[in-house]
Amino acid sequence: MPDIKPQLGVILCDLDSYPVDYIECLTPDAPGISNNPVGFFENPASWQGLPVAYAVARGARVEPLVAGEPEAIDAFWAASEKLARCPLVITDCGFFFYARKDTRRTANVITSGLDLLPIASVLSSKDIGVLTVSETLAAKLLADHALSPRIVIAGMESEPGWATMLTNDHALGNGWDQEMLKEGVASVVKREFGPGGRLENIGVLVLECTLLPEFRQEIRKYTSVPILDIASFALNALGKGFDVGEAPAPVGPAMSR
Predict the structure, then answer these.
(1) Are 200 and 193 in contact (CB under 8 A)?
(2) Which strand (E) or helix (H) includes residue 15?
(3) 143-170 core/surface letters (b: 16 or more CB in 10 A; e: else)
(4) CATH 3.40.50.1860 region(s) of the chain?
(5) Which of 48, 110, 122, 123 is the most buried (most CB within 10 A)?
(6) How far is residue 155 from each of residues 138, 159, 189, 192, measured CA to CA in Å?
(7) Third-level CATH fold of 114-228
(8) Residue 23: phi, psi to the nearest 5?
(9) Which of 5, 24, 52 is nearest to 240 (CA)?
(10) What is the mean pLDDT of residues 4-15?
């Protein structure tokens, strides 16, 4: 019996560089909607073999989206309708979380890594860290969240290349590259998890920005707390997750205590 491969839906911000409003990428080597490298949501090769359908939320330009403007949220709902048949839909910007302030509801969409905050709240009684592209904008977004008293926010916007992500078109080469972004993550995480850092005493970390999951290994160098992000959730929900297939042969006696 052939393997069933559920299709992941991804709602994209409205960037000038996207030539179409909708595209399906059924294999990892299918032409994508942009030239951004593996690790970016809009590259189908980032999804470990899952077929992906992309819908651009036309009208959800980055700048109005991160401000929670109504036209950006309306664009989110229009794009979500195009992906209604997908069992799971995610977005490429954590600030689509503004859609949760709307009275409309959809059954198959995780708007943001911030949707994982309730899970984070039961993983630890300590504060919850949020790593975001912008501390100021995330603080505004989460000001009225039920978990706000427990949330500690650290932002990336002061690091080279990261502020570009808050502009209306941040295609590859517009003032950043992956190595620059990675160095910024290392700088912030090392500082904030270090002595006196804002994240020093948190019990769990949530990644708001969808550029951050590709740097999980870099973040892990500086903390042992659980890390939650929307990309890992999607890959586990629709992909192989913990199941690696046929179990390898045992290499030695099991140890127990």
Answers:
(1) yes
(2) none
(3) eeeeeeebbbbbbbbebebbbbbbeeeb
(4) 114-228
(5) 110
(6) 8, 9, 10, 10
(7) Rossmann fold (3.40.50)
(8) -155, 140
(9) 5
(10) 93
**Six token digits for residue 93:** 């910007």
Strands across the sheet with 204-207, in order? 151-155, 128-132, 204-207, 227-228
- The per-residue b/e assignment along 114-130, b for 16 or more CB within 10 angstroms, e otherwise, is bbbbeebbeeeeebbbb
Nearest to 234 by CA among 137, 90, 92, 96: 90
Task: State pLDDT tens for residues 58-101.
Answer: 999 999 999 999 999 999 999 999 999 999 999 999 999 999 98
Q: Residue for token digits 């270090």?
A: 194
What's the pLDDT band for 256 if we cut at 50, 70, 90?
A: very low
Token pair listed for 122: 């039961």
Which residues partner with 130 through β-bridges? 153, 206
Tokens representing residue 123 in the block: 């993983």
For 149-203, how does the pLDDT look when each residue is reduced to its tens digit (9 = 90+)?
Answer: 999 999 999 998 898 888 776 655 677 888 999 999 999 999 999 999 999 999 9
Q: How far apart (Å, rounded) are the C-alpha atoms in residues 143 and 164?
A: 24
Are the CB atoms for 231 and 41 separated by under 8 Å?
Answer: yes
Per-residue pLDDT band for 246 (boundaries 50, 70, 90) equals: low
Q: State the burial class of residue 14 (Cβ atoms within 10 Å of its Cβ: 0-12, 13-18, 19+).
A: buried
From residue 230, how far is each of 35, 134, 136, 216, 251 by CA, in Å?
Answer: 22, 17, 21, 12, 35
Strands 204-207 and 22-25: unpaired
pLDDT at 255 over 50: no
Q: How far apart are CA 197 and CA 154, in angstroms?
A: 10
